[in-house]
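Entry:
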Amino acid sequence: MSPFSLAGKTALVTGANTGIGQAIALAMGRAGASVICAGRQSCAETVSQIADGRELLLDFSDPMAARDVFADDQIDILVNNAGIIRRNDAVDFSESDWDDVLDVNLKAVFFTCQAFGRAVLARQGTGAIVNIASLLSLQGGIRVPSYTASKHGVAGITKLLANEWAAKGINVNAIAPGYIATNNTEALIRDEARNRAILERIPAGRWGEPDDIGETAVFLASPQRQNTSTAQSSTSTEAGLRADEQGLRRSEVEQPGPGIVHLGLGAFFRAFGAIYVDDAVRISGGDWGIIGVSLQSPATRDRLAQQDFVYTVVTQGPDGGEIFRKTEIVQDVLVAPESPEAVLTWMADPAIRIVTLTVTEKGYCHDPATGNLNFGHPDIVHDLGNPLPKSAPGFLVRALQRRRDAGRPPFTVLTCDNLPENGRLVRRAVLDLAGRIDPALAGWIAAEGRFPATMVDRITPATKPEDIDRLAQKIGYRDEAPVMCEPFRQWVVEDDFVPAYGTHARPDLAAAGAEMVADVTPYENMKLRMLNGTHSSLAYLGYLAGHETIAETVADPVFAAFVKRLWRQEIMPSFTPPEGVDLEAYADALFERYSNPAIRHRTWQIAMDGSQKLPQRILGTISDNLDAGRACPGLMLAVAGWMRYVGGIDEKGQPIEVKDPLAAQLRALSDAAQTADEKVAALLGCRDVFSARLALDLVGPVTSAYETLAAQGARKAVGGVR
């Protein structure tokens, strides 16, 4: 939450669709303001993240565009951020470029201020104006003559208006950012020589980020500004960055109390669920801090502990631009093998109302082919006889047991793993285990507990050491645990939480952009089949063809045609889409996301744990197609690709590092067979992956696909699918 309150205020922010304007609009929304996001382009993305926000289309190439806006709404705060830039040497700069920039950046600023001032004075009220100037109004810069002149003019207008209006209740200030990573500066960032020269002049050695400006604007618009009203107090982000800042530290802003325990705190949840929760708290408040739990390794805890459990989310756009977000919603991380008692104590704490999970398919200790809990799993065997568990189902059951015994309501179990009907799956695992431990406990959980299903979607590639080094150079502090992600995110949640907590049963996820629905199944089917199914298909076949990443794979026209054919001929006909969803548009959007070169999602990474993923991502689609009498040669080839992959040898005869809980078993089955048909038959006999009925149907088409792969190689085999 912002330390400065704008509750009850209405703010108009121009140029709020991206960059600094977007950051200011979001910051003002977090401070409690109603925000009108204005500009010539849609601000829908910004508005979707603000509790009380709306957009207003205004084209400031007409300097009088806002003359009537203030007559219709009582607006308390005006932020003039909209601006354009034109670059050329002074000797070649054209009159039209000069006029265009001055109209938007200076003339429109003055007349928008004038219209705002007239409205405030007419109602004998008070107001605040924050104009966005630039450090170039002091430095001059190069190759941007009209931009420099316009921003110098903004500083001058701000001083003039402050002198005239301060005594009349209108505070006028300006912020003069330095080098900020926005659309206007992309060209400089990409110019290696210019970028290097700029970074050498910045004390912290990094570009500023739009979020650096947001809270400054909130302060200047808030009552706490204590009548500051002069452009002389402008903030230079470039000069203000701390050159001595070495590592991340938690801010001194009051933190929410804990309300969530998360099992399996990996990169995905930190870039996804934690961000939704953080946004919900910023917008609507509530004690929803997150206590993370690692069920295996202390590595994540150790990296986060040294920086107060704060980390950076790096959103990577397809154009090479990056957005950095410092995130503080995670408050502590426990390591279950070191202290299972501490984990259970937190899970049983009455403040905890939700336990979220991202433990991957294998973390539920179930049989993927049947969905039943695997009572022969070593961790489940342990948990049946020990009060201090090892498995995710074990921790859920033992913590719920403690809550029941203490007379407390259960927590909601909210899984965020890519599994069909994931809520029902984890409910089944919990009830199966609880039934063996204490049948009465199973009955209590079944009656009082809630296990809403979810659909989650955000591509989050693994963070590499070079990412950490590059990030330190770019943002001026060292983060040992950043997470990388694409801009897209979608969370669909069944709105079924433990009713005993009333209005405090969950964060305001809808305000943060999550879709709260009665039944998530149609969304699950769409995402698992169209995204995860093609991701796995591209991973196995792309890896065999020598492609390192998904972006590299779909840049190959053979694979691009293959995945588009999969969607339209084999996957989309297999299920009913959610109401109102255009599957053609969804497929186009997926292809655009796959093509993002900044998201280095490795085929090898996606290929992990295939024995756990194949049934829900690919085999369900195949089964439905076969039942409907539809051929699906592309998906058969994907299954054959998986079989070649788990054989452990690539097309060049080099070993493949297969990461899979059944890796040794699958490799042994493949090695023991000699011919293609023998290998296929042996792997189809693995009942942990294939049901007996489906295996019988797959023998012919998968054997044929396997033989084609072996004879022609993956790329030619993919190109031959019709």
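The two ends are 55 Å apart (CA to CA).
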